[in-house]
Amino acid sequence: MVFFDKIKTEAFVLKKKILLNKDLLIFLFSQERGKIVVLAKGVRKINSKRSSYLETGNLVDIVLNVRNNFYYLKEINLLSGFYKIKQNKDKVKIIYQFFYILDKILPENKEEKNVYNFTKLFFINLNKQKNIDNELIYKYTNKILILLGYIKKKVSKNEIDRIFFELTNEKIPLIII
Questions:
Q1: CA atoms within 13 A on the CB side of 52
Q2: Closest CA to 30 of 54, 53, 8, 52
Q3: What is the mean pLDDT of the chain?
Q4: How many whole angstroms separate alpha carbon 31 and alpha carbon 80?
Q5: pLDDT of residue 133
Q6: pLDDT tens per residue, the chain (177 residues)?
Q7: Hey, what domains does the chain have and what are their CATH numbers?
Q8: How far apart are alpha carbons 156 and 73 in whole angstroms?
C-alpha cells in the first residue's frame, strides 16, 4: 500500500510542460510551499475537466499528494481565471513576462508569503486597470526583487535587466503576442 501526505493550498499557474501519456508538469507558485513542480496525470485526456483550470495565470485551489518530495495533482478548483486580463493583449504580455521572471528567480519549495501576497495584489490591480503603463512590469519586478532580498531599494530598468541576467544568465524576454 502506498501512502501519501496531502496538502491543500492556493496557487498561481506559472507554466506547464507537456509530457507523454496525457500528463503535464505544472509549475505553480503556491501560498504555503512557494514555487513547486506538480505532476498532473491524465489531464490532457479529451474528457478531463481539470485541464482548463491549468492555464497560465489562473489562480487555483489545489489538493496535492506528496510522496518522496514530489507533488501529484489530486484535486483542483478554479478561484479566478482573471478573464479581464486575458481579454487584453497588453495585459497578457505583462503576466507572461511577470510569470517568466517569477519562475526564474523564485527558489523551489521555499515559502515566500510576502511575494505570493504581492503577486495576488498585482493581479487584482492589473485586472482593474484600464490603461496599461509600459513600465508596469519593471515597477512590480523591483518590488519582487526587494521582497526576495536581491536588492535593498528601487533600481532603474537597466539595473533590473542586469540583476536578472546575473541571477539567471538570461535576459528578460520581450513577449510579443
A1: 9
A2: 8
A3: 89
A4: 15
A5: 75
A6: 456 689 999 999 999 998 888 888 999 999 999 999 999 988 776 666 777 789 899 999 999 999 888 999 999 999 998 888 889 988 998 899 999 999 999 999 999 999 999 999 999 888 888 887 777 888 899 999 999 999 999 999 999 999 999 999 999 887 644
A7: 5-80 (2.40.50.140), 83-168 (no CATH)
A8: 40
**Residue the block writes with cell 503576466:** 95
Joined grid coordinates for residue 112: 515566500
Distance between CA atoms of 10 and 79, rounded to whole angstroms? 9
Specify the pLDDT at position 162. Answer: 94
Buried residues in 120-157 as b, exposed as e (16+ CB within 10 A): bebbeebeebeeeeeebbbebbbbbbbbbeebeeebee
Q: What are the grid coordinates assigned to 62, written together? A: 489545489
CB 52: neighbour CB atoms within 10 A? Answer: 12
Q: Are 26 and 40 in contact (CB under 8 A)?
A: yes
CA pair distance 24, 54, nearest whole angstrom: 9
Please measure the distance between the N-terminal and C-terminal CA atoms of the chain and give it in whole angstroms. 48
